[in-house]
Amino acid sequence: MPWRDIAVATVMLVIAVAAFRESWNMPIFGGQRLTAPGLFPMITAAAIGLLALTVLIRRIPEVLGWRPIRPEAPEEEIGSVTKVIICTLITAGAVALMRPAGFIIAGMFATAGLMLAGLGRRPKLPEGAVILGAALILPFVMHWVFTQIFLTPLP
Amino acid sequence: MTILDYAAGLFTPYYIALMAISTLGGIVVGLLPGITVTMSVGLLVGLTFGMPPLDALIVLTCVFVGGIYGGSQSAILINVPGSPAAAATALEGHMMCKTGRAGQAIGFSTIASGIGTVFGALVLFAVAPMIAEFALKFSAWEYFLLAVLGMAISAALCGRSMALGLIGAFLGVMIALVGMDSVWGYQRFTYGYTDLAAGFSFIPAMIGLFGLAEVLHALSVRAGQPLADKVGRVSTKVADYWRYRMAILRANVIGVIIGALPGVGADIAAWVSYGSNKQMSKEKDQYGKGTPEGVVSAETANNAAVGGTYIPMLTLGIPGDAVTAVILGGMVLHGLRPGPMFFLESPQYFTIIPTIMVVSAVFLVVFGLMMARVTPRILGVPAWVLFPVVVLLAIVGSFAVNNRIFDVWVMFAFGVLGWGMRALAIPTPPLVLGMILGPMADAEFRRALSTSHGSLEPLFTRPLSLMLIVALILTILASTGGLRMLIERFSRKTE
């Protein structure tokens, strides 16, 4: 889809310009331009920018109708974006809870939240029991296994 | 110690049990859709950090071998490959399942995977030392060009557009450049955050990119149910494998060669092998109707690719695919340094790793055939029950590497990035390769320029550099159609 590629290329062009500017302003130590820390990032940013321009040059004429859109192979389905957003927010919430509340509370939140989001509807009684049981037991078991056997100091 | 001593050292009850358990674990992980081999290996790198290097290498290699095979069982039974490498298997395998030959399909895929793994291991054993010796002749220019060539090959073969693939690769390079500069110690792109001083930790990034991203995708799509509640007999005849011997041989060769190309991997190997054997087959009309030759072509190649991916990883420090990229990171954590000097510093691993693969292949065949009747029950577990477990494991695995919450946030960020790239049809292997090869390209480029006092002349006067530049140009031309145009123009001129 040309619009999608144009959006990606535009974002990458902005990132490339910002990175190039940042690298240009990096200091040069001992007068050694060839080993300056900003040299390779500048080259990489320039490469990204040029490639993004290539994509834009190819795709903009297709969107404007100046050139036919080339057929592409079918892509896999994305699925429900709403579900992805909900699961992302739940995961972020769990990670944020790790420091103040600890792994077990964060794990309970993540397990219950992701199971409910994954199910996508009101759970039936047996499903509810599975979710409740898993949310209560799984984080405790994991915490024990990783702190006692693998010696990982989980919060 | 001789080569046989290195190999013999693995045949103790402890190591045999470790290889068996790891292979079985890999098969289980591989057959569950949404749990990728890359993610499992990434989690295990963190969890095996406390083990001795050899033990960790056994676990990682055997999970890799088992996981690549395991995806074929879910591909056959529910038409959802457990790993991307089994996508080609689903075409013929699921058709065989629909026509009541699920057991036969699993039997073929299991034996073919065993054959492919052994072939890949033997090629690794024979070829890797030769490449390692050749690599000692490389200078900084060659290493820099090799890094660029690796990213270009990955971008050319892994996606719908080379430009987007290269953007991904260079984005990976930029991500890898965040943190302290290796020459002057200057903090690049850290914006004052001390957590970023060491850059983005590689293992959490991989767990996010291939683990959390995959879970987010799998939770959002409807999963299939096993078509077969019961799997019939899994036995196949030796005569069948003799009948498909040319397909098996081609698949082995294709698998190893494609596995050895940086950033490409088993899934591409399986498709190329399937496509090639379909073209050359005497039973071409049977393809698409459930021919065992299709299953054998795909499965032999994807497991042969496992040995192939280790070749550039061990000899040049350039991973053959995402899984070996993670294994490379794990080996570095254990104090091993894959690359041109690895053969001089640790030659025993050039015998040990192929031996591990061969033993794992034997366990793969035994467990694969035994598990066939249990697999439909495993696949019947709903995704919404399984994936929260995976997310918790991803959180723990990311935290375990450096004991920092920041790494868990890195995992989360890369998970969202990975899902986004998938939604936008931008391939992720070039990004991974960029993250691995970026620091190497940076250091070697600056070293090369410093040695030549800013002159780019050695790039074009050194024969090895010139060879790599030609390979780079050919790669770009081939993937953009420019090569075909040039050949057509040349043909018209000569007519």
Total number of β-strand segments of chain B? 2
Note the overall shape of chain B: globular
Low-confidence stretches of chain A: none
* Structure class of chain A: mainly alpha
**Which shape of chain A, going by the Cα principal axes?**
flat
Helix content of chain B: over 70%
Oligomeric assembly: heterodimer
Number of helices of chain B: 23
Most extensive interface, chain pair and sizes: A-B, 73 and 62 residues
Mean pLDDT of chain A: 87
Distance between the termini of chain A: 45 Å
Report the sheet with the most strands of chain A, covering strand number, pairing sense and barrel closure: none
Tell me what the structure shows.
The complex is a heterodimer of chains A (155) and B (495). Chain A has 155 residues and is an all-alpha fold. Chain A contains five helices and no strands. The mean pLDDT of chain A is 87. With 495 residues, chain B is mostly helical. Chain B is built from 23 helices and two strands. The interface between A and B is large, with 73 and 62 residues.
